[in-house]
Structure formats: C-alpha cells, structure tokens
Amino acid sequence: MPHPPSHATPPRLQRGAGPLAAWAQITQPIATLRDAALLSRQMWDACSALLPAPLRTGVQPGRWHDGVWSLTASSSAVAAKLSQFKPLLLQHLQQHGFALRDIRIRVQPRAVVAPSVPPAVAATPCPQPVAARLRALLARQR
Predict the structure, then answer these.
(1) If 79 and its partner were Cys, which of 37, 38, 53, 73 is the partner (CB 3.0–4.6 Å)?
(2) pTM, entire model
(3) Per-residue pLDDT tens for 52-66?
(4) What residue segments make up the domains of the chain, in order of their start?
C-alpha cells in the first residue's frame, strides 16, 4: 500500500470557484492581499465613527501597504474635508495598536446614474415646441 505524500495537498479549485480562504492556502500573494484587505476593514471599523455621517458616506477604505493606508473620497470636496480629519484618524488608529505611518487620500468620483423617467411622465402629451426644446436640452447634457 503506497504512503500518501508528506506535504499537505492543496484544495481542488477549478475555474475560479472556491472561497478566498481556500485560494489563500495555495498562494502567498492572495493570502497577503486578503490580510491587507482585512486590516483595512478593521481600521475603517475602528475609526469611521469619528467622521460625521455625511462625510462617512463619501469615503471608502482602500489599500493598506507598508504602514500607509489609502482612503478613497467620492469628490474633491470630500477629500478636502477628510484631510482635516487625517491627524485625528492617524492618532486614533495608532493608539489602538495599528502600525500606521500615514494616511493617503485619493479621489475617485462615483459614476452618476441618470434618473429614469417614470412611464406615466414619459407618456404625458405636451405641446410640440416644448417637446422639441426638452429634446434639445437633453442632447446638450449628453
């Protein structure tokens, strides 16, 4: 009877299926990315309550690498206001045991989705000159 190999057999994963934990057992880079994402989420959970609710909705936790944490702001206005909170966030996280040297803020505007027109409004008849003017205004916005 043959003996099984002495090393652990990695889980069988096919065509991208399987949980992240299984992939992390196979490759070190995936495990590193998973750990960094987990740490970023923990830092966000530890400090997000320090931000006012309207500001918090415009910020998302980002990448953590070598003691530098990136936060993504939804606009330059959010980034400017967030930069005022940067010293407070940095101090708070360091006091809670996170090995953090700096916080970087980057801006990534969210996609604006055009509101859909309810069918009742779209079917409402209007005078031809008004409809033509509305079409011209809509074409200018695109």
Answers:
(1) 73
(2) 0.59
(3) 999 999 999 999 888
(4) 20-107
